[in-house]
Amino acid sequence: MVEKETSFLEPHPNLSPERRNQILAAVGLGARRIFDQMPLLPVHDITHVERVVKNTRAICQGEGIDSFIPEVAAWLHDIGRLQEIQAQADGKKIYHAEESAKQVPAILEPFKPELGEETIIAVQDAVARHSLPNAENDSQLVKILKDADKLDGLGSIGFFRVFAFYPERPIYNPQNPFEDGSTSEEYLRYSGQSSQVQAFLRNMEWFSDPRFWIVTPTAARLAVPRVKLMVDFLYQLADELGVPQGEVSKIPIVQASQKRLASLSS
Length: 266
Ligand SMILES: [Fe+2]
Ligand SMILES: [Fe+2]
Hints:
- By secondary structure, this protein is mainly alpha-helical.
- The protein contains 14 helices and no strands.
- Bound molecules: fe (ii) ion (FE2) (2 copies).
């Protein structure tokens, strides 16, 4: 279980439910306006953000945590994508999570008296870390945001997102469609000219390795039907390609995913 109770996750005593909804609506609108200025990125558009907000709410509900502050963080977690894209176009590299975090204080400034400095810093920290693997010092807020984001890379929506993210890649390596991409190091060898099947397996790794991703019990439970679908998809793909199903069964990511699925359904 993730540890409970950190002050910024508690409902603010002076905020009425109506005011909280107003703040969430205003933050959501702020995020929408930022995404409206970006070119369409099917993988990271406002619908991704909306799904991450929804996942955040579901995780908080399952964990028995007030979702107000986590939802604020979810709305803002990817707002720095535009700067990342612009930097890429100029041949520079910036990290969208850090860029998003930089923009958090300005967006939350109107609500600073109500939210407090500590909460704004906590949201900033969660946004800055949202795409890094789970770390020992991650707060509950950070864990929830990471899990909510990664859930959106699993299941049906994960299929579309992974394939849309790498349109330039071959679908699979004809020499070895299910070549192993089980560890980050191994995966790195495939990055660049890796296949879409490898990218798909890499998304599955967000579930298969409970040390780094999908660490909250509720997110793990929500991931189960998504990952079952992904495993079935790989077996079906093997059938269609005329590859023995054993080739799928021996992929370490698949084995680890099946092991975690079994532990969650027992
Ligand atoms: Fe992100
Ligand atoms: Fe995201």
